[in-house]
Specification:
The chain is α/β, with parallel strands linked by helices. Helices cover 53% and strands 10% of the residues. A hairpin with a 4-residue loop joins strand 6 and strand 7 (159-164). The longest helix has 23 residues, at 210-232. Bound molecules: fe (ii) ion. Fe (ii) ion is lined by residues 194, 198, 263, 277, 281.
């Protein structure tokens, strides 16, 4: 088997590293930067701290605080336009995946004409290099600091899509576990499940290779060790550091091997039913683990054991899948993750509404990968019938 390893983004990792943001921007030659974040980061006081640190290094700041969840194209265009108007020479993204992805898009637009929607997709898209981009994650989940692109919502077609390439490349990720100490338990849970999905999906992807397996295995092992601890005691710095490393390694792992069914389902649930990314990806994870077990029994066994589950010696692939299902579902219940049904009641949609769009959307995403790479990433054929069965069971059981 051939293995390709690519980890495109330099990362500064460790407790207290965010204090170096001004110094690092100065080293990059920045004099005036666009700082991109959302209202939650502002109210948590993190944005103000980062802005102060940048200003103390003698660098001017212009703020875009309008980041939206599942960042819509128009919001990325707004952020980019602000940077152009203010003639910034750098971009800083602070926050969860939405803030970092909006910052990536805003960077791209500093040297590539708007709107952002002309850069969607992977095929045939060429972008020019742009100003330096520093990203500072404040959740342990997205892994966006390690990935070569960003996820943006195409509001015309109502789907989540990608930007990628040199125009939106991260110049430096500053990954400081201290920034996650104040996260509420529900956010620790949903973002932690996102990190787990990155790890287990890339580990079992058809595109998995020796390098992604190394990082993916370590990532889900760290999640098994630290997610419940971080959820139950947000001030546990060792657990926060473990989860931040899990998120970073998960991001590196998925950069090459990519994710599959849980993320494809999560993307559809996010775009169509406004379920937060981590919750949407986790919504069907127990069932996904069960259906992929016959195709990757040893890997599913390893994941189950790392998450504290038990797999009997000599278990059949089906029994291994059942153990994985039960282990992941127990973890989700311990983290009090809202179910698909809960979101249906809250956001006003039914099981039939989900079944009407998600199976077809997931099948289309996997077929797109087949066209691009010659194979999809799912270890089992992603038929509409299989996805419908997964979603239907998740609605009833989780
Ligand atoms: Fe994700």
């Amino acid at each position: 088997m051939q293995s390709i390893f690519s980890s495109p983004n330099p990362l500064l990792f460790g407790i207290g590293t965010s204090k170096l943001v001004g110094e690092k921007l100065r080293e990059l030659g920045c004099k005036k930067v666009l700082v991109v974040y959302d209202a939650g980061i502002k109210s948590a006081g993190v944005a103000d701290t980062i802005i102060r640190l940048i200003n103390e290094a003698g660098i001017e700041t212009v703020c875009y605080d309008g980041v939206q969840a599942d960042p819509p194209d128009w919001s990325v265009d707004e952020a980019g336009a602000l940077g152009l108007r203010e003639k910034v020479d750098g971009v800083v993204g602070v926050g969860g995946g939405s803030s970092l992805d909006t910052a990536k898009g805003a960077k791209l637009l500093q040297t590539n004409p708007p709107p952002i929607n002309q850069y969607f997709g992977r095929e045939g898209v060429v972008t020019k290099p742009s100003v330096p981009l520093v990203v500072i994650p404040t959740t342990a989940g997205t892994g966006s600091e390690c990935t070569p692109g960003g996820v943006i919502t195409d509001t015309k077609n109502n789907v989540k899509t990608n930007i990628a390439g040199v125009g939106c490349a991260v110049t430096l990720g500053i990954v400081d576990p201290e920034l996650t100490l104040g996260l509420p338990p529900s956010v620790t849970a949903s973002t932690g499940m996102d990190a787990l999905c990155h790890a287990v999906e890339s580990y079992t992807s058809q595109r998995a290779n020796s390098f992604s397996e190394l990082t993916g295995r370590e990532a889900f092992t760290l999640v098994g060790k630290y997610l419940v601890r971080a959820y139950e005691n947000g001030g546990d710095l060792e657990a926060r550091k473990g989860m931040m490393l899990a998120a970073t390694l998960g991001g590196i792992s998925m950069s090459g091997a990519l994710c599959h069914l849980a993320h494809d389902i999560g993307k559809m649930l996010g775009a169509r039913f406004h379920i937060p990314h981590g919750n949407g990806c986790a919504a069907c994870l127990p069932q996904v683990m069960e259906v992929i077990a016959p195709a990757a029994p040893e890997k599913v066994r390893e994941i189950t054991l790392a998450l504290g589950g038990a797999v009997p010696d000599g278990a059949t692939p089906e029994e291994t899948g059942r153990a994985a299902y039960e282990t992941v579902l127990a973890l989700m219940r311990r983290l009090k993750l809202p179910s698909l049904r809960d979101y249906g009641a809250k956001n006003g949609f039914t099981k039939d509404d989900v079944l009407a769009v998600v199976p077809e959307g997931v099948e289309g995403m996997q077929q797109g990968l087949v066209k691009l790479f010659g194979t999809g990433t799912s270890p089992v054929p992603a038929t509409k019938e299989l996805i419908a069965a997964i979603v239907s069971r998740a609605w009833d059981e989780n």
